[in-house]
Write a structure and sequence with these properties.
268 residues, globular, 0% strand, single chain, 11 helices, mainly alpha
Length: 268
């Protein structure tokens, strides 16, 4: 068996294991979907209070924020890879990945796959509910484009998550992942347009991958206007992914080597 098929088989085995563990907690899916539905209902009525000139009317704001909510859920799952690695370290499973042919970097990526796939399924359910109950104008023609954008954005956020994994392995702490996704979603325009920011803060939205991700998804799914051309947004997102992924993989490798030299690889 060649190298790539071996990696894919190992990753799929990890996904199956994580799925089997997840479904053993039967109420988790229900509680998470209910939580997202409560958020939708809250923002539906908040949208009644939004001034019409912010994004083009109450209904347009609600469609705007629905896409932001599901984007945060999916990309947050990709970014929280460090929490999955933390559990593997506590259970004594991560060391098996280190000595396996897959290696640490591919092993970390495989741990991110099931949470991302699950969050994507939940996001689809929430979008369908938003269409059926709240009548948001979802564009079916834009779904294929949205899937491609979501895949590229997920890779970028897995790369960011791997950087936090490197910190976890090296320093036994990666508590910044939660506030990082909160900050990126806030400054990237998940819940309100970036143009409402003061000018001195608006630049932050242009130097992180969340902004082009959510902008492109809104453009594809609900027809939101883009400030910049589509090709430029895609280029920025692709550049973030191309730059961050190799850096994060090297960071994980260096963290593993450093922890091995210190004899702390099995500690948490």
């Amino acid at each position: 068996m060649t190298l790539l098929p071996s990696y894919l088989v190992a990753m799929w085995a990890t996904v199956r294991r994580d799925a089997a563990i997840f479904v053993s907690y039967r109420l988790r899916t229900v509680s998470q979907i209910l939580g997202l539905l409560f958020s939708l209902t809250t923002f539906y009525y908040v949208a009644r209070l939004v001034r019409p000139d912010a994004v083009g009317g109450h209904d347009r704001y609600f469609a705007f924020v629905v896409v932001g909510i599901v984007t945060v859920a999916v990309l947050g799952a990709a970014l929280n890879t460090s929490q999955n690695v933390r559990l593997e370290l506590m259970q004594g499973n991560f060391e098996r990945m280190l000595v396996s042919p897959v290696g640490p970097a591919a092993g970390v990526i495989s741990l991110a796959l099931f949470p991302v796939l699950y969050a994507s399924v939940v996001a689809v359910v929430v979008l369908l509910v938003a269409v059926g109950i709240f009548s948001i104008p979802l564009s079916v023609a834009g779904v294929p484009v949205a899937l491609l954008v979501a895949g590229l954005a997920t890779l970028a956020f897995i790369a960011v998550g791997m950087a936090f994994v490197a910190l976890l392995i090296a320093f036994k702490s990666a508590s910044g992942a939660t506030w990082f996704i909160s900050g990126m979603s806030l400054l990237g325009g998940a819940y309100f347009p970036v143009k409402l920011f003061p000018g001195w803060l608006r630049w932050v939205s242009q130097v992180q991958p969340f902004t082009p991700s959510v902008d492109l998804l809104r453009h594809a799914l609900v027809g939101a206007r883009l400030v910049e051309p589509v090709w430029l947004e895609v280029l920025k997102l692709g550049a973030f992914t191309a730059v961050l992924m190799p850096i994060s993989m090297v960071m994980v490798w260096l963290a593993v080597q450093w922890s091995r030299r210190r004899g702390t690889i099995t500690e948490y």
